[in-house]
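Notes to self after the call with IL:
- keep both proteins in one doc
- input above output, always
- annotate only the second one for now

Protein 1:
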Amino acid sequence: MFITFEGLDGCGKTTQAKLLYECFCASGIKCLLTHEPGGTPIGEFIRNVLKSNEMKIFPLTELLLFSAARAQHVQEVIVPALESGVIVISDRFADSGIAYQGAGRGIGTAYINELTTGGLLPDVTFLLDILPQDALARRFAECSPDRIESEKLDFFYHVREEYVRMANSEPERFCIIDATKEIDEIFAEIKNHLNHRGFFYETCYGGNK
């Protein structure tokens, strides 16, 4: 099973991905928690370049760097784990490219995504939805903004709109969750959704499947 978490920086997806990972691990279920950009030595190197405020990166260059990191991530980490029967949880995947580079930057990403993922799609994608200004306020309270987080608010509205559009067009894969709720409330929704889809486990859920 391949589960991804998507949304604007500051939406809480990293926290929820970690909670789900810990829940599976506590139940003795083989699970891998990873993230994008990154997840591999090459990916982490690219991540540092992409987040740096010290360099000017053109939109097409940005897309290709994210895509290179994703291609390495898929081939080195995700596919081998799935083939060995491990549940993979990823903090961001190809939907981020469509939202950020596709909608935010206005670049076509369909061919690049197909090339880098080999057609791999998550079984379930949780979209933690929140208004851009609220997400950025949370993020900036934690740390200084990186290169992408320094974009104008309008950029993030385009990103959010694309996320919602994708989620509405693929309701069988996406689950939209109000990211303004409390952490425990959000995690309960995630468990309930997986339980109703037949993907969850009684040991994690704390009740009947």
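Protein 2 (the one to annotate):
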Amino acid sequence: MHERSSVGELTQELRKELERYSPGGKLPSSRALVERYRVSPVTVSRALAHLAAEGLVVTRPGAGAFRAAPPASAPAAGDTSWQAVALSADGAADLVPRTVDAWGVTVSLAAPPPGVVEFSGGYLHPSLQPERAMAAALSRAGRRPGAWGRPPLDGLPELRAWFARSIGGPGGTVTAAEVLIAAGGQSALTTALRALAPPGAPVLVESPTYPGMLAIARSAGLRPVPVPVDADGVRPQLLADAFRASGARVFVCQPLFQNPTGAVLAPSRRAEVVRIAREAGAFVVEDDFVRRLVHEDAGPLPPPLAADDPDGVVVHVGSLTKATSPSFRVSALAARGPVLQRLRAIQVVDTFFVPRPLQEAALELVGSPAWPRHLRSLAAELKARRDTMTSALRLHLPELALPHVPSGGYHLWVRLPDGTDETVFTAAALRAGVALTPGRPYFSAEPPAAYARLSFAAVGGTAEITEGVRRLRTACAESLP
């Protein structure tokens, strides 16, 4: 049994057992709990820590664990209705309302109920994460001299140099001085949009695109303007038209394994996209979020747009999170020219710096022999999962169209039959035991059709993928026109 699973199960069992004790009653010793539930001492310690954090038990060193006294009655609820007026008062009629709709993000972050197949997840299943390598890296990092001190505001020089090499390639087109270390891709994107666009300004986005980026833009009071993508990425002529029509000075894109379509920007379009932005006097924010989630059969990858951009048009965002763990939030912002100073200033004001132990652990991880081994095994496993899901969908659910099968990333983008109500389909899928992500949150304007995103990285393995598709058969029979 996985350690985190056993901790949760023991916590639940002990929570029930507490009902047999009066306040102040002593629980069995840790040794007795180890023998009774056949778990490790570490599992017992963690379960008791969970209960202590919930206020259900009190631990006393040398004495044991005791049932806590019941909490005092809750205070009377106050009247917070006044906040509706305060939160809606933007102070200027021309600003975009800053209503924050995080649903499109939380659907990929929240864990589904037990027994539900997680086709909605946006991160690797624990079995795919390099847990031992991360634990070893964090342990080694914690023992480094000065590891718990204040880091340089821009990030550790060695980590900035590593990211610079991974972005600019062996030719060194990106230097460490042009890199800032940030706390994950979402934080880096937030910093970039705050630096490049004032409240009320338009920002060009791919359509469809990552809901988290749309949430960032809207919460900052920006106006997302959609630019359609096809199998070869964003369409340059429509991008040029959107710049002229909107007057935007920022375009946010994912040139590699775009979320959600999986498209890769075609070689013939790469330089053209940068040229169009340059002529519009605009920046391109390159969200290179899954470069390390390439599949085994992908072949050589194109370099980041930032690698071939001497004029500073591209602001690059790259992260280690997707290939490691949702809690390993280390990323890089790369830019050249005066914009770098603005990015640095905003990041310092918002977060001061990324904790040094995490930066030191990132250095230990990417410099260890375990890192390339992990990436190789991950590439093979992602390909196997993608092929399993693709074959199962084509065999059992041919009515769900697959416009594109990517060679990187962690999901498939399926088109639902015309006339399908995404909300009804999503609810039917959950009743059948499958959590998925509907397509509507990926569009900043009216979607051209009904879609769903199915992740194959957040589940336990290929058998669970097959079972999930089987369950979707029931949902389709219930909800599709």
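Annotation: The mean pLDDT is 90. The two ends are 42 Å apart (CA to CA).
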